[in-house]
Amino acid sequence: MFTHFTFLDAGIVGFYLLLTIIAGLAVRKYVGKVEHYLVAGREMNLYLGIASLAATEFGIVTCMYTAQNGFKMGFAGATPGILQTIAMLVVGITGFCIKPLRDAGVMTIPELFEKRFGPTIRWLAGVVIVLGGLLNMGVFLRTGGEFLLLTAGFDPQAFAQSYHLEIMMTILLVIVALYTVLGGMLSVLVTDFLQFIIMSLSMLVVTVLIFAKIGWTPLVEAVQKHHGPAGFNPFLMERGWEFVLFNLCLQFAVVLTWQAVIQRILSAKSTKTGKQIYMHTSFFFTARFLIPGLWGIAALATLAPEQIGGNTLYAMPKFLSTFLPTGLMGILIAGMLAADMSTDSAYMLTWGGVIYNDILAPFRRKKQWSEKKGVLINRFIVGCIGMFLLFYGLWYPLKGNLWDYLGVTGTIYLSSMSVLLIACCYWKDANNWGAMGAIILGALFPIGFLVLQQLPATAEWAQHVGPYKSGIASYIASGTAMIIGSLLKKFLVKKKEPSY
Amino acid sequence: MSYFWLLLAIFCIVWYSTMTFYVGVRGFFDIKEMLLALKSDETSSIKEE
């Protein structure tokens, strides 16, 4: 396959990697307590918070699914980004849920739940968060590896039969794990900052080049030809209303409870800083869908169907592999590596933080662990997550749209956690019966959908139902369970202390 | 409808370029401030012990 990737590009990538490792390892000496390791001692200020949130929430996997959305849905594929901007702006301005959460001084969301719903719900919420989060993150590595190899000009058939992808993924993960394990949130923040700059520059340069070389009109014509009016208006798409409604629920839930996002609020210097981070970063979420979406549309406009093959996920990297000149190719790959590494490191730390803080909480009740032991256990957990990612990422066969998979796995916990958080902050009658029902029903629909999708006997039926209906059902069921469960306990059980 | 997406795309590029530059400069000072605060926190913890 023809490519512009040369030794100059490889040099740029190598230099970037070296810089990241040095920066990531340099700050590990500042980690003395668990609070430093998990939330950077709550010393993160506004601009570092913006850079970190943007870098964390944009990985290669983001670039791949947003470009796939652009390729398969046209401009309408950027709708989830616009919805997330609205959600972040609303929550940032009003402080809805995030204000009481930050004011509570907790390190994770389940920790707040314990104050209202008791230790069992804290533990269960931790399990559901980790389950949904790790399944979600499981596809990051393989997708990232596929992007890098395709953009560098490797043939998909060739890397399916060799171990290039696996070797590259392992090296990447080892580098990320190295500085995350040692430096925790501090390393994540410093490398996120570096990665934000490199990633943003590469994204902007590539997009401007697409405008200059291909132009706007061919992009519009390609969308019109392949998707018609539905390529511009999401409501005209097949299952358009379902798509918009599911994404609206999903984006509000992400903004309120996605642990990787919330961790920036919890690490912020103050509640006001946290709210400002949300407001100032809100428009980034439109950009993160629209910019790679334009790359996907450019692939639609310039590549013949035989060049793309059967997998629409590969269209954008295949387009970039021949479109970008030498030098710029290296900057893009360094930028995308930056994007991927910042996401992987932050996510590993995030889920690791929940495992330590909430799932292992019962083991700390009798005797508190020392700070040194706490940091050591956190490092061990992050290392274990790295191992899980490596193996899960290798064998899970992804079916259907990548964004849909991420939406469904995320919903396993997003639906119930958003319901629990809202109820915890604003409904005085909410209790542990309602919380338990919300967690179980919230996870049931998306997990059921994933299982049915993988079984040959039910795959067709799952396809017919689609990911949006199961996702919407999960939010409705979770909310209903919280109301019914809480009211049932209120009327059936006599109040005694402590009441959850 | 295509004009809506054109305007949004142009705004995205302009806004993102500005944000990258501004956050790039101010974020650097935030890191410096954060590390200094953590260093003083560490020093005071040692003194307390």
Describe this structure in words.
- The complex is a heterodimer of chains A (500) and B (49).
- Chain A has 500 residues and is mainly alpha-helical.
- Chain A has one domain: Sodium/glucose cotransporter (Up-down Bundle).
- Helices cover 79% and strands 0% of the residues of chain A.
- The model of chain A has no long low-confidence stretch (mean pLDDT 85).
- Chain B is an all-alpha fold and 49 residues long.
- In chain B, 96% of the residues lie in helices and 0% in strands.
- The mean pLDDT of chain B is 85.
- At the A-B interface, α3, α11, α12 and α16 of A face α1 of B.
Category from helices, strands and their pairing of chain A:
mainly alpha
Distance between the termini of chain A: 62 Å
Largest interface: A-B, 45 and 32 residues
Low-confidence blocks of residues of chain A: none
Assign an overall shape of chain B: rod-shaped
**Helix-strand category of chain B:** mainly alpha
Main sheet characteristics of chain B:
none
Arithmetic mean pLDDT of chain A: 85
Number of domains of chain A: 1
* H/I helix tally of chain A: 24
Q: What's the CATH superfamily of chain A, by name?
A: Sodium/glucose cotransporter
Order of helices and strands of chain A: HHHHHHHHHHHHHHHHHHHHHHHH
Helix fraction of chain A, binned, reads over 70%
How many strand segments of chain B? 0
